[in-house]
Write a structure and sequence with these properties.
With 190 residues, this protein is an alpha+beta fold. The chain contains five helices and seven strands, in the order βααβββαβαββα. The two termini are 27 Å apart. Helices cover 33% and strands 26% of the residues. The model has no long low-confidence stretch (mean pLDDT 92). Helix 1 packs across helix 2. It has a seven-stranded mixed β-sheet, with helices on both faces. The longest helix has 14 residues.
């Protein structure tokens, strides 16, 4: 995990902890079944469905789930996976250091400008805090234009459209250098 003291002040507002299925499943169930989470593909999931899904992730050797907190309040979900074993097996040739990622912000009636961009930036910082991570891989639904814009803002470059069993996805990559350049560019623009 990233040392919060090494981050810029605003970034310190975001922290991560492993998802605890026993205590977090009900909260996460509300997030993944919310209409705003349509691309998470769990709209009709029951609480036991969510518990089973995240128990399977917890038991997997190549997939992890984390609860993201904003100023100590659970506010988003992050999944990290090894694309050589999960999600993208046979759909592209993974390189050493590739790490797959999913993220979902909690639904809210209060709009905080820049919040979701802050979340994805924190997620990327967390992933790149591991020196073994060379490149982050994402595969969002091709129709999810909002997440494509967020991905681009943190340095992702689209590679190709792939067909997964559950969706047509835009396979995109972001190297450490691309992420750092995107963050620097945004900081200079402020």
């Amino acid at each position: 995990m990233t040392d919060p003291n090494e981050l810029p002040a605003a970034a310190r507002d975001f922290t991560f902890r492993p998802l605890d299925v026993l205590t977090d499943a009900e909260l996460v169930h509300g997030w993944v079944t919310h209409p705003k989470a349509a691309f998470w593909l769990m709209q009709g999931a029951t609480l036991p469905d969510v518990e089973r899904e995240y128990m399977a992730i917890a038991a997997a050797g190549h997939h992890d789930a984390f609860l993201g907190l904003h100023k100590g309040v659970p506010s988003f979900l992050m999944e990290r996976y090894d694309p050589a074993y999960v999600e993208l097996v046979g759909l592209y040739d993974p390189l050493p250091g590739d790490v797959g990622m999913h993220f979902l912000t909690a639904p809210s009636d209060v709009r905080i400008p820049g919040f979701t961009r802050g979340v994805i930036t924190a997620v990327m910082r967390e992933l790149f805090a591991d020196p073994a991570t060379e490149r982050v891989v994402v595969e969002p639904d091709v129709r999810n234009t909002a997440v494509h814009a967020l991905n681009e803002a943190v340095g992702f470059r689209p590679e190709t459209v792939i067909q997964k069993p559950e969706k047509e996805a835009l396979l995109s990559f972001c190297t450490r250098a691309q992420f750092e350049a995107a963050v620097r560019e945004r900081e200079l623009a402020i």
